[in-house]
Design goal:
heterodimer; A: alpha+beta; five-stranded antiparallel sheet; 4 helices; B: about 260 residues
């Protein structure tokens, strides 16, 4: 309110300038910044977080080596990205509680929550327990974490490729075009190792968060995702 | 006394008979296709495979197109009871037990009439599917009913490989370096996990066994062996080996069983 009032107090010329500025910025918003729409004032929005861009599937191309993608870990509370490139990294990080998400597999596209119980989880036999539930609901509309029984009964082991519409993954993948496409209206509720509840939407693996990609050589993986952790321990996940 | 006892007995038998007739008649009305008697004991009609005997299916071929692998191919229905592929028009009958759909028809589901994401939807199928990290031989206990899931395309890629979707029947080796030596021929290979084998890192795989509740409510366990033509060992599975040719073994036990017995 204060801002608006001060605008009206300005002289006509500066008013005109302001109008222009508003016009320009609103144009920009529509044209090229899908990331702005992701902000809701409460969630953390991560844009273009680089995954292992040096690895190549198939054969090596200039600047890339043919090798499996290095895993990276991500800590929700301070957005720390932790790379696992060798046995020392593994020993230092994997079994600890200092990470919440692990981006694994081809193009770092398969995301695990930190969980010691599942054999193929990077945190297997470590110290953290988490659970994840897939909700077929738009992120903004998820106001409440599911019950603990629902978390306990969840059979989701990771958030990765959706082999069919009824699978739990966050993207479809075309083997003919080799392009990933995020599935709309899909949000993941997470029970974190410290018992707090969170929601997560994985939005894109391509640089700049383009709505759709047709070019196989579009820079990837660069992750855009948003999340919210309810700090007071309740199941309230309302962000908008 | 004697006469009235006999009369009662006759009447009782008659009424049971009547009930049975009514039962069959009503069944018939609901399912005009299913004219055969449903097995109520462990006797089976002659064209069905017997209970308790291991069956082997080799090179069950489904259509593929490597140049356009993600274009959806028709879902393929297979009857464990009759040990054969069934036409797609049988979708809403109990004459099939598992279906192959999704990418390369490599995702398997059961036949269930109550799940809208199932080719058997609105039909009589009472089936479902699950998978366990046990060998075919070691898996003897039939899981509880709630373990069986009813959608199509549930069991496929395993988390041991790339693009895993939980526990699955095959390991997908995109880079060719999980199982193979990273060479061109070993890239993009799908390894069935029914039999354990050794990975490139020296570790042995955990075997996988699929468990199916059939359309009619019996139970089957399935060992997936290969999706490559005439090839049943991992060393001979290559990117260009003709696929998809499913080879698997299974055994069916009657509804109500708690164990998989082989007799």
């Amino acid at each position: 309110m204060k801002k608006h009032l001060s605008i009206f107090k300005l002289k006509p010329l500066s008013m005109l300038c302001f109008t222009f500025l508003i016009l320009i910025s609103s144009c920009k918003k529509e044209e090229s910044d899908p990331n702005e729409q992701l902000q809701d004032g409460n969630s953390t929005v991560i844009t273009d977080l680089a995954g292992d861009t040096q690895a190549a599937m198939g054969s090596a191309t200039p600047g890339k080596e043919a090798r499996p993608f290095y895993i990276f870990l991500f800590r929700l509370k301070d957005q720390k990205q932790i790379w696992i490139r060798n046995a020392t990294d593994s020993a230092q990080w994997l079994k600890g509680k200092d990470w919440d998400l692990a981006f694994t597999g081809p193009y770092n596209s398969e995301v695990y929550v930190n969980d010691k119980k599942y054999r193929y989880n990077p945190g297997f036999e470590g110290n953290a327990e988490s659970a994840v539930v897939m909700l077929e609901q738009q992120y903004d509309l998820v106001d409440q974490a599911p019950s603990d029984q629902v978390f306990d009964a969840s059979t989701i082991t990771k958030i990765g490729w959706a082999s069919s519409a009824s699978a739990n993954g966050w993207f479809f993948y075309s083997l003919s075009t080799h392009i990933m496409q995020a599935i709309p209206n899909r949000t993941y509720a997470i029970r974190l190792p410290d018992g707090k509840y969170a929601k997560l939407q994985l939005i894109n693996a391509y640089k700049g968060n383009p709505p759709s990609v047709t070019d196989l050589n579009w820079p990837a993986p660069y992750f855009t995702f948003k999340y919210y952790v309810q700090q007071n321990g309740s199941k309230n996940l309302k962000t908008k | 006394m004697n006469i009235s006892k006999t009369a009662t007995r006759v009447f009782k038998q008659l009424s049971v008979g009547l009930m049975l007739i009514t039962f069959f008649a009503s069944c018939k009305k609901d399912k005009p296709v299913a004219t055969e008697k449903e097995p109520v004991t462990s006797t089976r009609s002659l064209d069905m495979v017997p209970y308790y005997k291991v069956q082997r299916v080799e090179n069950l071929q489904v259509e593929t197109d490597d140049s356009n692998p993600t274009a959806p191919k028709p879902e393929v229905l297979f009857s464990l009871d009759y040990k054969k592929m069934q036409p797609a028009t049988y979708g809403k009958t109990s004459f099939w037990d598992i279906s192959f759909s999704g990418l390369y028809n490599s995702f398997i589901g059961g036949n269930n009439g109550s799940n809208s994401d199932n080719a058997g939807y609105t039909g009589p199928g009472a089936g479902g599917i699950t998978i366990l990290a046990k060998s075919f031989e070691d898996l003897t206990d039939i899981p509880v009913a709630s373990a069986f899931k009813t959608a199509r395309a549930l069991i496929g890629t395993d988390d041991m490989g790339e693009f895993g979707v939980g526990i699955g029947w095959y390991l997908y080796d995109f880079n060719g370096s999980i199982v193979g030596d990273g060479s061109y021929d070993k890239k993009h290979v799908a390894y069935a996990l029914g039999n354990a084998f050794t990975l490139a890192n020296g570790q042995k795989t955990q075997p996988r066994t699929i468990i199916v509740r059939t359309a009619k409510g019996d139970f089957a366990k399935i060992k997936m062996i290969s999706c490559y033509k005439d090839v049943f060992t991992t060393d001979k599975m290559m990117r260009n080996t003709p696929h998809m040719f499913f080879t698997f073994e299974y055994v069916i036990v009657p509804a109500g069983s708690t164990k998989f017995e082989i007799k």
